Amino acid sequence: MQRASRIGGRLAHGGVLLVPVRVKGNDFEFLVDTGSAYTAIALPTARYLRTVPQATPGVRIAPAHGPAVQVPTARLDTLSVAGHMFDNVTVLVLSLPAEMQIDGLLGMDVLGRFRITLEPDTATLVLRLPRAS
After folding, report:
1. What is the Rg, in whole angstroms, of the alpha carbon atoms belonging to the chain?
2. Is the pLDDT of residue 78 over 90?
3. Residue 19 lies in a domain
4. Tally of structural domains, the chain
5. How many other CB atoms are found less than 10 A from the CB of residue 74?
6. Under DSSP, is residue 38 helix (H, G, I), strand (E, B) or coil?
7. According to DSSP H, which parts of 8-130 are helical?
8. Distance CA 80, CA 51 (A)
9. From CA 24, how far away is CA 123, in angstroms rounded?
10. Which of 11, 65, 98, 99 is most exposed by smallest CB count within 10 Å?
11. Where in the sequence is the domain holding 38, given as residue range(s)?
């Protein structure tokens, strides 16, 4: 397997990076969010995928602005970023602002499996596999 993947995306909303992510065989655009511990999907994305939030209480998160909130979670059978496949991924289901037109957030639960580099000048996310010990 290749040691590094370069993922071309696009800059939007004042400079954040959006990259392609494949979920259950469908292509989406997720915001790269190094400040989020969790990967999340937007509520319309969950509906499109017919992904039902789990009956458990969910996860308590502390957004950058506002008080901590409890949010539902769901399990995705597959999630793929640049050919790196993840099975049975637990994600948050969030009500994201519709005007942002993003399908989800790519958080540190996925990004943290790699050495990551953000290249804003080329709208690229670079994922490198950790060095073998």
Report:
1. 15
2. yes
3. yes
4. 1
5. 18
6. coil
7. 43-48, 108-111
8. 16
9. 25
10. 65
11. 4-128
The partner residues of 119 in beta bridges, in order of sequence, read: 124
Q: Is 30 inside any structural domain?
A: yes
Cα 9–104–127 angle (5° rounding)?
45
Q: Is 94 exposed, middle or buried (0-12, 13-18, 19+ CB in 10 A)?
A: buried
Contact in structure between 73 and 94 (CB atoms under 8 Å): no
Q: What is the mean pLDDT of residues 1-27?
A: 91
In this predicted model, what pLDDT tens digit does every residue of 80-92 receive, in sequence order? 999 999 999 999 9
CATH number at residue 108: 2.40.70.10
Question: Structure tokens of 43?
Answer: 């509520």
In a domain, 133, yes or no: no
- Position 133 confidence tier, pLDDT thresholds 50, 70, 90: low
Contact 30, 105 (CB under 8 A): yes
Distances (CA, A) of 76 to 4, 40, 113: 25, 10, 18
